[in-house]
Amino acid sequence: MSNPTTIKDLARALNISVSTVSRALRDTYDVSQETKDRVQAMAAELRYKPNFNAMSLVNGKTHNIGIILPFITNYYFSTVITGIQEVAYNHDYNIILYVTNDSPERELNITRNLSATGLDGLLVSTCCNSGEHFKELMSREIPIVFFDRVIDDLIVSRVTQDDYNGAFQATSHLVKQGYTKIAHIAGPKGLPFTEKRLKGYTDALKRHCLPMHEEWIIYSGFSQECGEQDTNTLLKLQPHLLPNAIFAVNDRKAIGATVALKRRNIQIGKEMGVIGFTNDPVSSLLSPTISTVAEPAFDIGRISCELLLKHLNKKQTPIQDIILPGKLIVRQSTQKEGSYTSKEAEDASK
């Protein structure tokens, strides 16, 4: 097997110094664009691959990016990871996953045991309400970008979907469909995106002059089982407090709601409307199909990684707070008449 191409090989082929090749590959300011183009062309021709182990000894970079996130098994986070991977691999970075399983204790342990010398930067979707454990990492000048689940009191870049307007749109859609007693099965209390979706829900009810009751808001986890349990709790309310629609914080909980309703022979749509948030593919496969607000998961991953690389390559990159819009998708679970047309779905998304 032939030896890998080195910087010395590139320098010899181009008849320029090794230091010039090195600076050209690092895109430094003191090398002309013409020389950079020649070096890149020769590197491609000779199939040069950088030796990151050697480079890390020189510039202190490992070309490893850490990702802390609650799950890898659900649709949303697996899609986010795909977006991150596309950018990271195109820039010769490896990714290392740290999965918390939605446990604050595990997240704390992960951050305490992170090696400052093993990662260039960190992408985080937190399950904690406080960010004290990240402040210590920030004090070591480890660049961090939050995505999806963020901590508001940390001065870091973040990329999220528009939780407030998505929730407002979902609740308003239920109102326009004729539902007047709308409950919300929320995420864990205190998480910023839980509170933003709750705020969108309550503001939509106020806008349409509809009643709100504390009993209609239930905080719990994000699983299908939690959605089923929350819905059973709602169905035990006194007759005058029984809701006729449910806005779920995510699609998994919306699916749990439909399971609970079916077990009680309650007709979904006609008797009880249900809408979720995420656009998990499963929501379009069930019967009835479940209305939802689609999140731009791939773009959240892609943009988060691009932003982290900017912070890595330029220390003075300003902090950014990027919010991406969602899209209302109308399906059968919010149709009181039990049918809908593609035009209705198209109009609702505008």
UniProtKB/TrEMBL annotation:
Pfam families: LacI, Peripla_BP_1. Signal peptide: none annotated. GO terms for molecular function: DNA-binding transcription factor activity; transcription cis-regulatory region binding. Transmembrane segments: none annotated. CDD domains: HTH_LacI, PBP1_LacI_sugar_binding-like. Keywords: DNA-binding, Transcription, Transcription regulation. Residues 5-59 form the HTH lacI-type domain. The keyword Ribosomal protein does not apply. It comes from the Bacteria. PROSITE patterns: HTH_LACI_2. PANTHER family: HTH-TYPE TRANSCRIPTIONAL REGULATOR GALS, LACI-RELATED TRANSCRIPTIONAL REPRESSOR. This is Transcriptional regulator, LacI family.
